[in-house]
Amino acid sequence: MSTPTQDQPLWRPNPARAAATSLVAFQAWAAEHHGAPAAPLAPAADDQQAAQRYADLHAWSTADLDRFWTAVTQWFDVRFTEVPEAVLADPAMPGARWFPGARLNYAEHALRAAEDPANADRPAILHLDETTEQPAVLTWSELRRQVGSLAAALRARGIGPGDRVGAYLPNVPQAAVALLATAAVGAIWTSCAPDFGARSVLDRLQQIEPAVLFAIDGYHYGGKDHDRTEVVAELRRELPSLHTVVHVPLLGAPAPDGALQWDDLVADDVAPVFEPVPFDHPLWVLYSSGTTGLPKAIVQSQGGILLEHLKQAGLHLDLGPQDRFLWYTSTGWMMWNFLLAGLLVGATIVTYDGSPGHPDTGALWSVAARTRATVLGTSAAYVIASRKAELHPGRDLDLSAVRCIGTTGSPLPPDGFRWIYEEVKQDVWLASVSGGTDVCSCFVGGVPTLPVYLGEIQAPCLGAAVESWDVQGHPHTDTVGELVVTKPIPSMPTGFWNDPEGTRYHDSYFDTYPGIWRHGDWITVTSRGTVVIHGRSDSTLNRQGVRMGSADIYEVVERLPEIAESLVIGLEEPDGGYWMPLFVVLAPGAELDQDVIGRIRTSLRTELSPRHVPDEVIAVRGLPHTLTGKRIEVPVKRILSGTPLEQAVNPGSVDNLDHLRFFEQLRVDRQA
Questions:
Q1: Which DSSP helix (H) or strand (E) runs through 188?
Q2: What is the largest CA-CA distance in the chain?
Q3: Torsional class of 455: left (φ above 0), alpha (ψ -120 to 50), beta (otherwise)
Q4: Distance between CA atoms of residues 429 and 409, nearest Å
Q5: Rounded to whole angstroms, how far apart are CA atoms 388 and 182?
Q6: How far is it, in rounded angstroms, from Cα 478 to Cα 480?
Q7: pLDDT in tens, 55-96
């Protein structure tokens, strides 16, 4: 297939298919009932007309938040046990107040499909791991029964609204059941992936003091069993708030002393009871690291997530009961929480516990083929890895069921777009998306009625007032700027845990432009309404979709006696790669030999995250700091990206310019 020019789409939706989407039906209904712009019944005559129709709908969705979000609640038949007094009582950011007085329950909506007897034996969850060829099936009726049984068991142990429930689980059906049972009783969920080391998990869970922990004995990944019993034992010792531990024996180990067996807690035939909670009642805590201090413990609400995920799954991905929704993720990434949004719209979700590259790079494409996934989500890094491995999944596998491929985690470069249309499927909707853990959703993403252009995300999402701003706070098009959101979204955090004054929350998003959410991404909004994401504008490390703060890296690395100081940078590269070097200042007398490098890598892999092991360890004479002694990260990243030193930082604010000039020379050497 020859690649179209930049002005010509790679893909256009079939007119009949576009006309049959939920988005078109929603617009027609919202035009009749809520003043949305009228949607003509005939398909758009051309790409420009399609873009204008969506732009009009998007403009209405952000100009009239009350009517738009009311329309969303009615279209998806959100069940309020107590009706709201208003939609948006206070639009000020931070602190916007959504649907005051309303009560509902997220888990009730996630299990609504099970209420229909016709769905009793239909799959709610299909599960595969590296050791299985065919997926295991958890039906809607069985999912509802297990959630009911586990919720009753939690209540029997005193767990209710406001209590915290932690999980150290991989992407398995038990994790979905545990989350829904937690939400059903009004407790607050949080999870960490089992490839996180004990220190990384404790940095998160110790902040919220869980009363319950669901924990595995180990997991299978990359063809190997990974025993986690010692890590779990350490978690139990270091979390004095725990009074209940539930053992999930994925590797068949016996339950440790004092732990409850998973199978015993989900054995009863009990209908779930859903605790009505306020709209802004916490649903879960996610973690997104900044550059200093502990990971940010982000609190998101039952109502806010429910509405945002209904909109995103039902309208932007056009998911429904006919779909099988697979997104490769771990429970430490917000995409796992978003995967469960498929249940909200009655879709079957596919959980996969294993490496996408084992036994070879094509493993995830094989999972999609075997499960007959209709919507397949992955990372930009996996697409690029597939291209470099010269895979031909469209030729070698039956991917006829796949109608949509979603990508996120980092910007998908043009070569990734080309490869998908050349080697996966010519007639597939590529929904490249970008958002964040901070809102557990997308700011910009797929629109099923719009064409797909090379290297560009289709449009801002409904209800998201996304703009690109310059440093003076002025919006612009066709120019790189800061991604900002000028109006509130229901899934924005209700706050951070242990941040009663809201200081850290404010400083994370609102300190640059008062009252405006600055996300920390470089973005271009094009004149045709598409979006290009260029990567992080701050120093957060975003690798394979999992964000880690540099402070987490420093804490581990600088425990080694040979390391006096360190600096880590994550750099998005034009070909879709991600280069993460670690610069170290050695202690007097120390040498950066293979032994020291090996101990750095091992420490980060075991104590923090294998995703954040540096690509290179480079010794430097010294690191640049501000005049107050804070090590400089963002200017170093800008210099390594090609920005001249004088434009990357005010030279007068740096303690030693020679240390900064080292990175200029390094950039030249890498380009040579």
A1: strand 188-192
A2: 76
A3: left
A4: 18
A5: 42
A6: 7
A7: 999 999 999 999 999 999 999 999 999 999 999 999 999 999
